[in-house]
Amino acid sequence: MAAALEPFVRLRAKLDASLSGSRLAKDRAAEALTKVMIPEALDYPA
Predict the structure, then answer these.
(1) Among candidate residues 28, 15, 9, the one with its CA nearest the CA of residue 1
(2) Is 44 helix (H, G, I), strand (E, B) or coil?
C-alpha cells in the first residue's frame, strides 16, 4: 500500500515546495509595493 502512494507523496512534496516559493515571492512583492513613493504631480494639467 505505501509503495503505491510513493509517487503521489513525491509529487505532493514538489507541489508544496513550489507553492511555498510562490508565497514567499508574493510576500516580497507586497513588501516592495509598500515602499513605492509616487510624487504628487503639482503641474498636472487640469
Answers:
(1) 9
(2) coil
